[in-house]
Amino acid sequence: MTAAHHRNDQETPVISEYRQSDAEREPDGSGEDHAQDRARAARELGDALRELVQAAAGTEVDAATLRKTADQARDLVGPLTEASRTRHVPPTLDEAKPGRRMYNPASGPGNPIAPPMRVRVADGVATGTCTLGLAYEGPHSYTHGGISAMLVDQILGHAHAAQGRPGMTVSLSLRYRRPVPLETPLRLTAWVPEDSITDRRTGPKATITTEDEPDRLLVEASGIFVIPTAEQAERIFGDNPPPRWSEK
Questions:
Q1: Torsions phi, psi of 38, nearest 5?
Q2: How far apart are CA 184 and CA 162, in angstroms?
Q3: Which residues pair with 202 in a beta bridge?
Q4: Per residue in 167-182, pLDDT tens?
Q5: Per-residue burial over 82-111, b = 16 or more CB atoms within 10 Å of its CB, e = otherwise
Q6: Extended beta strands in the chain, E state
């Protein structure tokens, strides 16, 4: 975040002025309206925290400013933990809209570590777009290979799900042909070759390129995805299996 006004080195660092969210300005409505308001607020928080994460990864301020900002950040934790969930409880925002993953680390708009990647699926092809900042740096000025793998895993999953039901990754293989640049619009493309489709498995493939040079491959990937049986989903997820995985 940037300071709300100009300051010299002796002044206390300040955080930008609080902006009241649309959700707080709007009166309470129906249950559906309340869920929509809360989803918008979660996106706002995700965006604000992404700004903070990116600023923290790129900052060169002095130690005193870092410690002061750390104290301010810790003060923000308390209100968020007044109502929280455990790993075994799905987010209520996801339950309100089946298929939504608000806190997915690759594409969830409410998750501050997500870019987030925006995904669309058309004619069985999944296309993701995102821009990665300094928080995702591996080699200087380039993306960490593990981040590329996470994004690839996500886009392969969308391609698999386009066949009818979502599944789980059982194998993932990547070939890093060129470094993936930071602060550059990226395009991820995934599809499922027809000859890789069986009753419960698919073998989707994916690429990463830049938006400006879609024919210049940076990363190539392939995976194997499987649709769990209802029994497998129950064993893995207990009482909260994803709805479409609990079907017989």
A1: -65, -35
A2: 27
A3: 225
A4: 999 999 999 999 999 9
A5: eeeeeeeeeeebbebeeebbbbbbbbbbbb
A6: 118-122, 125-131, 168-176, 185-191, 201-202, 205-210, 219-226
